[in-house]
Amino acid sequence: MGVEHRQLTHVLAVAEKGTIGKAAQSLGLSQPTLTKSIRTLEAALGVKLFERKPRGVVPTVYGEVVIARARSVRLHLHDLLNELQSLRVGIGGVVKIGMAQGVASRLIPLATVRVLDSHPNVRFSLRTGAVDQLVALLEAGDIEFAVAPFGRQSYGSTLIEEFLFHDRPVIVVRADHSLAQHSQLQPNQLVNCKWVLSDVATPLRRAFDQIFVSDNLPPPTPIIESDSVVYTKSLLMETDFAAFFPRDEILAEENARLLYGIPVNTNVPPRPVGILRRRSEVLSPFGQILAAAIKAVCRDFGYVAEAKTANRSVA
Asked: 91-166+272-313 belongs to which homologous superfamily?
């Protein structure tokens, strides 16, 4: 069974215009020619892609799948052409990656600087967000890979996790907070704090709640929920609120003695963090170089406690 690129272009035009006539006009084709192209593709796939309605056509469930894949193909082709053009004019191309909020905020900058030192013409596009948002960007082909904590939920068989290091977030308060006198905290010392935390659906929040559950305590209810790291750190520096962050996230503020990170004595295992990427695709050359730089920074700056890595499918 062969599917031609022009047929996918035709499917996208019909989906976006809503009628065969408007799609044909936008493509510079006659309506019978476009209809024949769609029917030929339907015959090759063995499914009906569109249903006729009084005001046009709408995709079937099979059509929706083909349209999603066709958009991904179009995006990848666009990226390919841009990358080739960049190489022709002496630019190294653009590496599009994602980073989960509150994860590896020191790691990624160090890795990108390393790549730029040896490949000054490379360009980077960085997207940040919750893990589920990054997964959606990966599946849509908008980023090559993401550095994120591995959640317990399944991301589907199309993605692969490549372990980098274990991360144990800390309690974060301003430097003169009453908790800042401690070098380590017990869960029962944290029950009555004023909390600003991430949303309950995030891996970071689940890790926080588990600290209390494992100690047979009810997880505290935050006064404020915020997915903005900038907002949260500003609030912490001005008030007696407490938060829960990876230590990397407050490195600059801790060095400036504005914030203080305190570990919690808990038997909750640390979060695995790593590279999340599509199973079916090989990273671009510069994507591979950046991934290698990320791993090198992990080794050089002590992120990896054990000299081993593990790859596994996301199940």
From this structure: Periplasmic binding protein-like II (3.40.190.10)
